[in-house]
Queue: 3 jobs
Job 1
Amino acid sequence: MIQVDQALSIIAENCCKMPIRKIKVAKSLGFILAETIFSPMDMPPFRQSSMDGYAFLHSELQQFDVVNTLQAGGFLNKEIKKNQAVRIFTGAFVPDHLDTVVMQEHTTVENKTVEITKMPSRFANVRNKGEQIKENELVFEKNTLITPAAIGFLACLGITEIRVYAKPKVAIVVTGNELVKAGKKLPRGKIFESNSIMLNSCLQGVGIKKIEAFRVKDNLKATEKILKHCLSAFDVVLVSGGISVGDYDFVKEALLSNGVEELFYKINQKPGKPLFFGKKDKTIVFALPGNPASTLTSFYIYVHPALKINMGFEAIHLPKIKRKISSAIENTSGKTLFLKGFYDDEKVSVLESQSSAMLNTFAVANALIYLPYDVANIEKDLEVMVIPLN
Amino acid sequence: MIQVDQALSIIAENCCKMPIRKIKVAKSLGFILAETIFSPMDMPPFRQSSMDGYAFLHSELQQFDVVNTLQAGGFLNKEIKKNQAVRIFTGAFVPDHLDTVVMQEHTTVENKTVEITKMPSRFANVRNKGEQIKENELVFEKNTLITPAAIGFLACLGITEIRVYAKPKVAIVVTGNELVKAGKKLPRGKIFESNSIMLNSCLQGVGIKKIEAFRVKDNLKATEKILKHCLSAFDVVLVSGGISVGDYDFVKEALLSNGVEELFYKINQKPGKPLFFGKKDKTIVFALPGNPASTLTSFYIYVHPALKINMGFEAIHLPKIKRKISSAIENTSGKTLFLKGFYDDEKVSVLESQSSAMLNTFAVANALIYLPYDVANIEKDLEVMVIPLN
């Protein structure tokens, strides 16, 4: 049995980035860039007015004949004389031999003649070509997270496709003879299966879309067969249940017989002790305890960072914050505890009913409280580590 | 011209929740529940063993004949005598007249006879019927956010569909003769259009999927026609550009001629002063300044909370945190500033180049710094309000 930190290190050592894929910028939100991008152009691509006003050549003159109009998008290739000006609007092209724009509020106009009432300094209100970025300058380093602002910036440089780390294809395998699909009649002794739909939503939450769920009875041959398929067709396999030591727990045996290398089995923690992590070729496998609250805790603490590594992230763990605990906690178990909690700006409280079979506490929790195995007592108002959820 | 807080109040008063829709629990992540849900069943639905071991009737006896095996999912309707026990596994049905389960580690077994070496207390290791939740008990209040844990809990109660607030259908209308679609050749005087794809990704980021983008030239008739369609077919219309006072800015006129009620126009802020907010029937309209950084700031500060109200959220604004500013700031503009910044655990710095036309600063920022119009000077190391992004 290993400690939580060891388990996390083993995961970090054994997960790797997914292959690089070219995708449309429009579909790239939340991906990690797998290439360094340089600008294909100057931005702005021409000298641009930043005001509605008049463009002219700065000199001793204060009065000009207005000879043309340039709205945004327009272009003018014509000699403008020293005593002439061009009516111009924000974003418009500034003709090559003009150097200054006066804002319209600082002019008076009569009969196609504009008089400047407040003279701007030379070069005022003109954005230079390449002022934002020049051709071949760095746009984004490799490993940048694609945000809406990044998408906007790439798009304004005319970039339509980028290389990113692909997202993994994930199989969810749910074991258990007791499980009945929701919507059907529930025979005595059975319960509704909820882990596949819950894990599916967890995966959606980290932006993964290629997800397939499989159900299998507690039977070695059937388990081996499904896992064989999943190990060859998916990047990540999440198995729910069948990983304890009961007579009907076949998952570990079926994983090993399929050639999965065991990287760890069992963590000194509560909930979620019987957690298995392994690897076959590039496919990683988590076998999660079947109790819903254990499954979910295991997802947030172990599966989530593994998926983040796959997707190319550098910050792979859910962020931790510190809060004062609202009542004393005793931990005589010698295990690391992940407690369902509720935090606000100042404090965190441990919610009642921490059973690993129960999801109702989880559904009202907004955080997990992390208590290391080697701290037996925490006094009220001492700071603890809190992992906010959602 | 109004202040930021007034604008936010007007938005809050004029936006309302979307109609209620029934959706599959499997597709409900991130929706807000529009009904109060009571449990259709007891959970667990029967008395359940929480251990692998032996079920028996607690008495003075220490030794039992093992007469049956019950794995999870099994059921047994048979009288078990006082001197008999049933081999049982975690999650399995506990036969009606038995009351206690002893964990297998506290037994020795020989020839179908089990001897208890450490007697558990009566009722030990048996989860009661309805221990987690009883039939008709409250599952979730109306207005609960659907998280993965909530999805798991609903699913384990056999609930497959729930009523939630729908998400709005959003139209993006981009105006500007200077705009060319990325991928095409860029004529002189033109720039690539980036706001539609950027706004689209912002909407994706809040979970909105029904999005359509329209492009229109700077021309009153064409603008009126597109807006007429959008106002009748969408819940939210986001117009980009054409909302200043230039001779080619037709958006406001086209909105008013289409019967849109003006709720505000222009906010005392930088960037994003010429922001228009209006309403026609139940459709809300934001006309955003066309400069990319203004568009994006306006989205985060004004459009985001409006969409959150539509979707039924109570916490509608992006969370604010406090950080010490890493250098003094002077604000003599009399306007509220939203500055692109970068924050860490302790401090926040103002990034260089805050131009509203430039997205590159935004792309490396991780926060907006909020400086109210009525504070002219902020000393280094004073706390400021920071709005983390992403």
Note: Chain A touches chain B through 86 residues (CB under 8 Å).
Job 2
Amino acid sequence: MTTTTEYRVTGMSCGHCESAVRAEVSEIAGVTGVEVSAATGLLSVTSDAPLDDAAVLAAVDEAGYEAARG
Amino acid sequence: MTTTTEYRVTGMSCGHCESAVRAEVSEIAGVTGVEVSAATGLLSVTSDAPLDDAAVLAAVDEAGYEAARG
């Protein structure tokens, strides 16, 4: 079953920032898709099982930004 | 003899942008140092011979931004 979870990310300013977030979040086990927009701050993560929010928040932190469940 | 040449770059918004410009400009033959700031848009290039402006402008363009001799 596919699950899509939304988060809000602050601090992204450009496409490089989007790429940094996408790269980190894509590494999480079970993640099958990542959409992220610096313009809106929205991060949408598709996974084949319910996501571990903490893992997503940690991945965004690793990329250098802050996120909250949207 | 060391030469430092100043340019103004538009469009950089974050540290990733600075890194992209720095990486491209650093590849130019003779370049010994690059300082770049997204906040001010200033790019300062140090070289061991007078710089070819066209090469610097092309490197910045390659990184995805626009520059002019400052």
Note: The longest strand of chain A covers residues 3-10.
Job 3
Amino acid sequence: MAASAPSSSAAEPEPNSAYLRPPTSAYDSWCGVAHGCTRKLGMKICGFLQKNNSLDEKSRIGGSFKERQSSKNVLSCENRDPRFGHTETDFSNLFARDLLPAKNGEEPTMQFLLEVVDILTNYIRKTFDRSTKVLDFHHPHQLLEGIEGFNLELSDQPESLEQILVDCRDTLKYGVRTGHPRFFNQLSSGLDIIGLAGEWLTSTANTNMFTYEIAPVFVLMEQLTLKKMREIVGWPGGEGDGIFSPGGAISNMYSVMVARYKYYPEVKTKGMSAAPRLILFTSEHSHYSIKKAGAALGFGVENVILLKCDERGRVIPADLEAKIIDAKQKGYVPLFVNATAGSTVYGAFDPINEIADLCEKYNMWLHVDGAWGGGLLMSRKHRHKLSGIERANSVTWNPHKMMGVPLQCSAILVREKGLLQGCNQMCAGYLFQPDKQYDVTYDTGDKAIQCGRHVDIFKFWLMWKAKGTSGFEQHINKCLELSEYLYTKIKNREGYEMVFQGEPQHTNVCFWYLPPSLRGMPDCPERRERLHKVAPKIKAMMMESGTTMVGYQPQGDKVNFFRMVVSNPAATKSDIDFLIEEIERLGQDL
Amino acid sequence: MAASAPSSSAAEPEPNSAYLRPPTSAYDSWCGVAHGCTRKLGMKICGFLQKNNSLDEKSRIGGSFKERQSSKNVLSCENRDPRFGHTETDFSNLFARDLLPAKNGEEPTMQFLLEVVDILTNYIRKTFDRSTKVLDFHHPHQLLEGIEGFNLELSDQPESLEQILVDCRDTLKYGVRTGHPRFFNQLSSGLDIIGLAGEWLTSTANTNMFTYEIAPVFVLMEQLTLKKMREIVGWPGGEGDGIFSPGGAISNMYSVMVARYKYYPEVKTKGMSAAPRLILFTSEHSHYSIKKAGAALGFGVENVILLKCDERGRVIPADLEAKIIDAKQKGYVPLFVNATAGSTVYGAFDPINEIADLCEKYNMWLHVDGAWGGGLLMSRKHRHKLSGIERANSVTWNPHKMMGVPLQCSAILVREKGLLQGCNQMCAGYLFQPDKQYDVTYDTGDKAIQCGRHVDIFKFWLMWKAKGTSGFEQHINKCLELSEYLYTKIKNREGYEMVFQGEPQHTNVCFWYLPPSLRGMPDCPERRERLHKVAPKIKAMMMESGTTMVGYQPQGDKVNFFRMVVSNPAATKSDIDFLIEEIERLGQDL
């Protein structure tokens, strides 16, 4: 919606309506055909398709809500033949109370939903169009003040469906197109159409994962998909357990809970005072959720020991062993090691086998946080980077990251059956009645720390059906190739410095861009201070211009650098080239 | 999809196509019009609408995938005029890889999404049609074996989009219609059209709540909505803090975490060993998530003390005080009291003011679990039941329950600012850079125990816009009236016994149905044993026949009883009547 440039696929303009933009798709063309041969038929559907394109156009060129409303009057598509009795729906006189389950609510409901779908499909089309901006940035105070009549405040009285549709358009207009081919800002990016369809269906089904009773199909899909994931991890026969959770941080939290339950089941009843001082280990490059779990679950952050990494961000096993010994000497009990498979910033893979050896030696739980890197298991070419994962006691794997599944979709896999249930069950009688007519082992709710649980499985299952394992493999390989392309392009390019040497293990490419003014300056506090400001400045300008988005951060003693990641299936080499050009364009005078 | 009876709103059948069901909506009628006057136009859209109705029809009357495929050949809508070049899309030769971002992927993408929407809108229409079954029950092994070709297994190779569409239909067919007017099985029921539209938009935007950077509009909507909720709770000026979490159990977990952080902030760093033995209090009727939180966070379940309730399920304050004193005498530290506003089974409201007095007296954190009852705050008539909630330190309130918002939508509200952030923040440099160009206090991620966080706010915000506060109030009042109707209907009816006396506080109506064979039998072990089996048997028959769904459970020493709840806006008195008739029909010979 935020595009300032015209659509890249423009065809012949529709002659009768000055306010219509040139048709950009088959749908617009059909409407053109409709006008060309008769006005008696298909007007309804044609009308809603055209009207929204036009409204959207008005919205893009500005104009208040009132102006946008009045723009409807000039739409040629609204000249209807009254004989058919299906005049343009006037949403300004319809309200939520007129929709289903209201009496006679079926037609307005269908009308309204189709209008919404039209808004969404237009958004989708433009998201994949590189001439559309990634975002139309505004500061919080600007949005709070209400831009062009977009009023975020809630009121006592209902608004018309017309206004609701405008609100939907505005919400998308001022948002960020995370599916845009040039959105590289997070580990989760892209907009998978099958996944999206799956999510639309999920919301329509609007049910809850806690019992087979009300989610029979989804519960079975979850069970089969988790088994498949465990097979891919390499556990014999795909045996074990698991559950989808609301994100990698919660999945990691599960791993710590289950480890504690395995070694000190009495903590469930008696609390942490029943156990000795327990120590969790994770690398200094690992995700902060291990520390969050340590804090939340009552271990305390100072009992989450950070391990040193090599220059590539991979944990140094010798440091782990030294710290295990140190902890034991202090009388503490080393409980748990998190090995990261694909660190957030460097994309590093910890050496799982060496860590597994230490876990066996010292009788500790091995968790692999593959939230980001787990997807590489789908690629025969890249899965060796997770070698040893089959020795893990638990694995976090977020299909919503590298596999392109819409948010949220994260799995915690546990090798030993029964632990999740044992750890979390409270046997709520109102949900988990033992005297149901079906096999109640299919009720999953007592494995979870949640009660109600959103259906996160369907979109993923549907994508797997639609792509096959081979489709995921191709996607993973392509993303890795693109990051290799970026790495090769900039590693010796003037004005670039790599944050770590050698080809990245994942799609993370970490680099500094040095504006001409900093090139050749020797390393000194002033250079570091100035370089630290470069990435934030370029990022701010990127966001203001809306052309692309990429993340940056400091790490340890390293000043702010860009972290490029590729997980978006829409990205191509041309988008990588664009990013580099854009960084240079925005950064040249800094 | 599982309906065996014809649609209740049938009109004139479409004469040309033997396989088409009678039109049930304006869309079918337009297609009829299309056939009546010209076959040249609107065929595309008409075609997809009709085809799916027909497929759906075939699916309802059985038939394999192949049969369903071949049924397409008889559709009159497919006789297209080749001049328009828009032949029926053959999805059997299209795959996920042909959709966007594929080159020329736009048209198949739009086609595919419209097909999906057609499946969903058909589902929605039927869900509100009382002649449709609530569910088409099958046992796990039946679904796993693959009914009528519905194969849940994942494979290496991709399936065609045709098969994906069939999978979508089958998924809905074998699911449970939680929006059906006769679905009373859970606290969350109904299918709000505005909320649904909001969720479709949310999935299309596919972003993450952790930073303003990538969710500017949603972050502000969350902020404004939480403020509004705090105002309604009664905290001066709506001040305070809060966050949407993945459900009431997690919201309750937050309350315990924040309470601990307020009184013993050193636990974050040093773990539970830094604190004395801390005690949490909650009623024996409260939700099991307080115990889950106690177990997970390291308190231990035996430090979650259950409080006695009166015969209506409301906590007895004197029991709380006695147990506080007892804990203190043992040298433990009473930390936290959970007062339930709307218990899961009885719908009971604990006396918040009396509990608040004790919390003040003993310097304890007061949490109100209004996951289920919080919605009553929207009703001037019923909000007195939560009197005293403004004295709480934290409140759980699930709009996805009584307010009819689609799953998941749960808020944890905290009266004191800064605690959520202090409790959970880990300052991840890669997300929460302090040197961004905007006011980074709008980045919410460090308040959460999650990292990525699903956008749960938009559907709720949009519903609030569309209904207004007044619309929620009307919905709440109507649900309470319906449950009053049920209560009045059965309290003196032959064959019914109320589980507790007096009018329910919430919509929960708890009752035993006594089959004629048990009536008049004196209370004895045999009667109890037989009565215990009645509700499960009736429930199983209900599910087999698919006509309605209602929950049952035992509670304390009470044998299985039905718990009826009303939160579904589609329910009417006739549905209440139906439920009673159905229980009597199914149960008369037990």
Note: Chain A has 17 helices and twelve strands.
